[in-house]
Fold:
Amino acid sequence: MEGWSFTGFINIKGVEVPVPEQSKRLNMKFRKNGGAELYYPYIENGVPKSYSYGTLYIGPGFEQLTILIYEIQEVSPNETRRSWNSETGFVLSAPAQNREEALQIKTDLMATPAGITLAALEASDE
Structure:
């Protein structure tokens, strides 16, 4: 999937992305691990800002998907960041009838064809 891109809108029922309506169009580029960030840059009162919802992974033929939903973490009293944690993070996967199926889809989509996990790829990029 590396080198793939997606430009358009992704709407998730029950999720409101807190950016101006004209900034909800995504321009996603997929990395070598198969993931692409749901990243929304925008301008507010002349100041560049951004919002990140999570990381999207899509399976071959677009038959499966997983989104690792970012949580807000306080870095300091004046600074927060959004990230995902494998121990406590939320995952949206489809199609899944239950939690076990959702987690299996996540596991399958986050592994490369060689069986290297996302964590190993991220460590090798540093």
